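Please check this one:

***
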Amino acid sequence: MENNNLKGKTVVITGGSSGVGLAAAEAFAIRGANIVIVARGKQGVMDAVAACRALGAVTVGVCADVSVATDVARVAEEALTMNNRIDVWINNAGVMASGKFEEIPMDIHEQVVKTNLFGYLHGAYEAIKIFKRQDAGILINNVSIGGFMPAPYSAVYSATKHGIRGMMACLQGEISNHRHIHVCNLYPQLQNSTGNLHSAKYSGFTIDIPPIASDPRNTAKKMVGLALHPKKDQFPDFTSLAITNLYRLFPKLIINTASAALRLKMRYNQNNEDEPGNVLVPSRDPHRIYGKPKMPSANKTMGLALLAGLGIGLALTVIGRRTD
C-alpha cells in the first residue's frame, strides 16, 4: 500500500459480522480505512457497522449472500459509492459442515461449495475487474491450512479450500504483469472464533476449540500486514505452518489418526441431534470475535508443547517402522 497508509482506503470484508471477519473490520477501522462489511444477517451487519463507527471509521454494511453472483456485484457497486474505488477486498466468508460424508444432506454439501468456492470466485471476479480499471488493488483470501491438508470428516469443506488455493494461484499468474495489483493468500489454522459455534454438525460430530487455536485478532493483524506489504502466500503464525508441515511429512498417518479419534468420539455422541448451523441461513448469535474467552498464554504454550510432542512422536514412529 502506498506510503504504508490505510487512512481513507476502501476495504471490503465478506463474512465481516463475526469471528476473523469482525476482527479484521475493527483492525482496519483503527487504521482509518473506510469499511464495507458484508454478511447475510441484518443484525450482525448492523452490530459490526456500529463497532467500527465507534472506532471512528466511515463504515457501511451490505446484507448479501456471497454465493449469489448478483449479490456480490451489488456489494461492489455500493462499495464504489464511497470514493469511487476499492483498495482492498478480503474474501473471508465461509461455512463448514462436518460429519459422515453420506449422512450430511446434499443441499448442505452443495451450499458449502457455493458459499466457499463460488463466494471467493464471485469476490475475485468483481475485485479484479475494478483493480484492473484502477491499475491497483489488493485481494486477500482467507484460505486456511485446509488449502494444503484435509479437515477430517469435512470432505466438501476440504475440497473447497483446495479449490480456492488452486484458483488463486492461477490468478496470481494472470495479474503478474500488473505491478500494483496483488492476490494474497493467508493460511491460518483453527481459530478461537465463532466459526466452530456456527458450523453444521452431523453424525454426532463435535469438536472443542483447542488450546492451540489462534487468536482471530492476530490473524486480522496479518490481513492488515498484507494490505500494507502484499505477499503471495503467508502462514500467519508458527502453529499453522507447523501443522501443515507435519501433514506434509506424515499425510496418511495424520489424517487416519485424526479420523480415528473423531470416529470414536462420534460413536459416543450418536444421540446428538444434527445441526445445520449457518450453512443455509445467516449465523445466529453470538455475533462476536471469540468463540471462547481469550485463552491465557499458559494454555497456548501447553498446546504448542503438545504439538511439538506429537511431531516428535510421529517422527519416531516412522523411523521405528523403517528400522523394522
About this structure: The chain has one domain: 7-323. Residues 301-306, 311-319 have pLDDT under 50 and may be disordered.
